[in-house]
Amino acid sequence: MDFKEKILILDFGSQYTQLIARRVREQNVYSEILPCNVSMDRIKEFSPKGIILSGGPSSVYDKDAPLPDKEIFNLGIPILGICYGMQLMARMLGGKVAKSSKREYGRAALIIDDDSDLLKAVRSGVRRQKSEGKENRTSHAQRKTHNSKLQTVVWMSHGDKIEKYPKGFTPIAHTDNSPVAAMADKGRKFYALQFHPEVVHTENGTRILKNFVFGICKCRPTWTMHSFIETTTKEIREKVGRDRVVCAISGGVDSAVAAVLINKAIGKQLTCIFVDNGVLRKGEAKKVEDTLKKHFHMNIVCVDASERFLKKLSGVSDPERKRKIIGNEFIRVFEEEAKKIKGVKYLAQGTLYPDVIESVSFKGPSAMIKSHHNVGGLLKNMKLKLVEPLRELFKDEVRVLGREMGMPEEIIGRHPFPGPGLAIRIIDKVTSRRADILRKADAIVLEEIKKAGLYNEIWQAFAVLLPIKTVGVMGDERTYENVIAVRAVKSVDGMTADWANIPYEVLGIISNRIINEVKGVNRVVYDISSKPPSTIEWE
């Protein structure tokens, strides 16, 4: 996609790299992440108005420390180094970095020595003043010094320090532990921060990034969903021509938004295929069909293959086997239906930018916690070309895009749902009866959370059917039935999550309804585990 106003982020392996890109895009400026060892030709081809060097787990004096091409400092464009990026800039430009005698992790009080450009308007409204006797604390992270200086709270995560800054640089901020917590060479427009402006814990982090993107790089805010729609639909039409496209619809946000965007570009040349695998949420198939067919007048083929999937899953309890069975069977069903459509040359997928980054990141793909259900095997078997209109977007941007195209909030704002569906929320063997029990319980959880006005505050809420039975009493009879666990978490991107503090009254209603309305359940428990160490899903 051709946007002239853009920022390049070089990835040195930081867990926050994607967050930097998102923070820049939130300012309506396009940003892209490339591995730190990308070639100069690729950087010049990208033609950024500024470069951000991300943090990373390495130390710059390590033998195998990741390094960019030194020519980036001769491009004549602004550069911002963050944490490892700062230390890297210092070392590569003639400064000295050494291990700090005291590591600095978490919140710290940043004392601003120069607020003329990068740190302009960065303040917490607190000025440090002289104090007699013991130091008073304005907060746990804001300690007084003997100077009257502007201060703000930042998030540190480092064990190294700048021992000598390079020629041309001057310190523009410090902390009690870091004499050079920020530095600048204003002549060359090189800036560096020891802390992470991209995380929410840094009070004025967004302001700092704005100062860099707009004040220093002189970018204009041209990255909008309206412009994205115009550009992308034109690209799809040019790529596809008069050929036909098939798109697998799962009921999730990504595939639905991709389908609506492609339909906007080529209309009836697109056919969507929705496969009911027997482990979907209650009313899922009808909801998807009604939304896409009635609201957007799309070609959609709905296939009820529930019996076929449940037969394949019979007797299987291992979650990885469940995933593979569902993924492989989906490919077979999809291919059978797609072959009935003449002139298909393209396969549409809802691939997102995090998936693209993961495949080209400096560190390579993350360690696998669980395999992901997707339609990757289709391309090899069907010999189709790919259409991936969302591959430059983050999840939150996909939701904005859907709203821009008029998609109903019921689809756009819905909680994430795993590709293998209820199969991995049924702990142990999957049967038709156990799927029905969980489907009904899950529907009650969502209904009551919506009634309580909590749905939009929660990242994900669902029910899990446990592989144990417990004794209970219903009426005058002893029961020995199933246990349902309720899981609800709050998160920004699913990478980390805290359990949601749902009011006891709401949990009580959920429990009563499940036990009274779902035959086969006599006990409900609530999961209060955070991620990490737990995952959001149980399997």
Summarize the SSE layout with pairings:
Layout: E1 6-11, H1 17-25, E2 30-35, H2 40-46, E3 50-53, E4 79-82, H3 84-92, E5 96-112, E6 126-127, E7 137-139, E8 142-143, E9 150-164, E10 170-174, E11 182-185, E12 190-193, H4 205-216, H5 225-240, E13 244-249, H6 253-266, E14 270-276, H7 284-295, E15 299-304, H8 306-313, H9 319-338, E16 344-348, H10 353-360, H11 376-382, E17 385-387, H12 395-404, H13 409-412, H14 432-451, E18 460-474, E19 477-490, E20 498-499, H15 504-517, E21 521-526
Helix pairs in contact: 5-6, 5-12, 6-12, 14-15
Report on this model:
The chain is α/β, with parallel strands linked by helices. The chain folds into 3 domains: 6-103 and 158-216, 3-Layer(aba) Sandwich (Rossmann fold); 240-412, Rossmann fold (3-Layer(aba) Sandwich), CATH 3.40.50.620; 425-526, 2-Layer Sandwich (GMP Synthetase, Chain A, domain 3), CATH 3.30.300.10. Helix content is 32%, strand content 25%. It has helices at 17-25, 40-46, 84-92, 205-216, 225-240, 253-266, 284-295, 306-313, 319-338, 353-360, 376-382, 395-404, 409-412, 432-451, 504-517; strands spanning 6-11, 30-35, 50-53, 79-82, 96-112, 126-127, 137-139, 142-143, 150-164, 170-174, 182-185, 190-193, 244-249, 270-276, 299-304, 344-348, 385-387, 460-474, 477-490, 498-499, 521-526. The strands form 4 sheets. The protein has a 10-stranded mixed sheet, with helices on both faces. Strand 18 and strand 19 (477-490) form a beta hairpin. The longest helix is centred in the middle third of the chain and has 20 residues, at 319-338.
